[in-house]
């Protein structure tokens, strides 16, 4: 894990960005991490993964709610037929 004090980072931005291409660089204040610099492609992937995880959690919550209420899910084929999509 690469860490650098914010005061030291001010004059080294270009080299910090180069380092961040290989892994996160944590900026510290009073020896505590307060921010991170990461590669833009890695950030995009993390955001996509977070969205997908949120979707998975929502599906899991819906299934739990269905089970808790003792409901029977409507099959997708029935929904499509009722909406005239088949």
UniProtKB/TrEMBL annotation:
Q: From what organism does this protein derive?
A: Marisediminicola antarctica
Its job: Antitoxin component of a type II toxin-antitoxin (TA) system.
Q: Which PANTHER family does UniProt cross-reference here?
A: ANTITOXIN YAFN, ANTITOXIN YAFN-RELATED
Q: What is this protein called?
A: Antitoxin
Listed Pfam families: PhdYeFM_antitox
Instruction: Say which family it is in.
Output: Belongs to the phD/YefM antitoxin family.
Top-rank taxon = Bacteria
